[in-house]
Write a structure and sequence with these properties.
mainly alpha, 0% strand, single chain
Length: 149
Amino acid sequence: MKGNFESGKKISPFQYFIVGLMVIITGLLGLLDWLMLREMILSLLLVSSIDPWSWSAIDKFTFILFGVIWLIIIYLSAHYYRKGIVNKRLWSYFLLITGIEIIILFLTHILPTMAGKGQYSIVLMILEAVSAIICIVASFEIKKRLLRY
């Protein structure tokens, strides 16, 4: 790696701490997404016309697939957060990734509910949708303001 993203700017230990904290938050949200996606797949299999003998294979395959995606998200988010420190866009990156993760969480609750197999609170789903929209809109607003100045 050439310096700190070819800009020559140094990242302080406190900034590394902030990046680490954000990666942990992203990882925990991603882990929750992973487990909820698995639960959603199992709920949707109940209402599908897929042969019940295939359910175990589908469950195992999607569990491993979502785990690999989770690991990739952690590595990419750590890279983008360090890049965001140098580019002064850390909060924009963090809010965007967090908003996307909350949208995934929202979808894992709303799809089984629409299929008649979910037993999730409507208030929880509304809070997830609103918080995801707030995160993504705030991310774009921060990015827009940074581009102006």
